[in-house]
Design a protein that fits this description.
Blueprint: H1 5-22, E1 31-32, H2 34-41, H3 45-57, E2 61-64, E3 68-71, H4 76-100, H5 103-117, H6 125-144, H7 150-175, H8 178-196, H9 200-212, H10 214-224
Antiparallel strand pairs: 1-3, 2-3
Helix pairs in contact: 1-3, 4-7, 4-9, 5-6, 5-8, 6-7, 7-10, 8-9
């Protein structure tokens, strides 16, 4: 079934605006003026309002009664809550994945880990961020997919969306640093080794520790940028 043109426009508005909020094109607390949004995205009020409504539901945008919309603020409290929720859920999902995953699951983990670890020549900073982040996401999703629960995967995706703004602060500090990137490669290799040994408890604890490593870095960046 084809998507209606109006729906296409709303999806486009949502994707572009969400990307720009995550990448801090619009700062936390900044008012989202409809006139500027129309000019930036070359879209009408209808698709933009629909996009903003979706982003309100995802807690990336705040609706202000009779006064339009603002980018949702960022805080240490939200950062800690989101990362705690995400690590707890990811640990549970990994335990189930180790219990339920088959040979194809293992092969997919190895394939995505290999792709993530490969060194590629990329022209710009933004491309480095986009390519590494996409491959990193594929790697972790391949691990989680072994749980074979669409509902858990949906909950995981929703938490990931909400944590993205904070992750992106960490991403710039990590992907553009050879030392930090090498540390991540080692963590990923150790994680794959434990998962393939089917040591559920050790893998769960390692995954939780791995997912929490960005938090101190994010706090440091937030302080530097006056966000904390």
């Amino acid at each position: 079934m084809e998507i209606a043109p109006k729906q296409n426009l709303a999806i486009s508005a949502y994707s572009q605006l969400k990307h720009d909020i995550i990448r801090s094109v619009f700062a936390p607390g900044e008012k989202l003026l409809m006139s500027k949004l129309k000019e930036r995205y070359d879209l009408g009020v209808g698709p933009l309002r629909e996009a903003l409504s979706h982003l309100v539901a995802e807690r990336l945008v705040v609706a202000i009664s009779q006064r339009g919309y603002r980018v949702a603020p960022m805080s240490r409290q939200e950062l800690h809550d989101l990362y705690d929720a995400r690590t707890q859920l990811e640990g549970l999902i990994l335990e189930l994945a180790i219990e339920r995953g088959d040979d194809r699951w293992e092969a997919n983990i190895l394939a995505t880990a290999h792709t993530l670890a490969k060194v590629v020549e990329i022209n710009s900073t933004e491309q480095v961020l986009d390519v590494w982040d996409a491959r990193h996401s594929d790697f972790h999703t391949a691990i989680a997919a072994g749980c074979k629960s669409p509902h858990l995967m949906q909950a995981r995706a929703q938490l990931f969306d909400q944590v993205e703004r904070y992750r992106h602060l960490w991403l710039r500090e990590t992907v553009l640093s050879e030392k930090a990137l090498a540390r991540k490669r080692n963590e990923h290799a150790e994680l794959v080794d434990i998962i393939l040994k089917r040591d559920a408890i050790k893998a769960r604890d390692m995954m939780r520790a791995h997912l929490m490593t960005p938090v101190p870095i994010i706090i440091e960046v937030m302080e530097r940028q006056g966000l904390a």
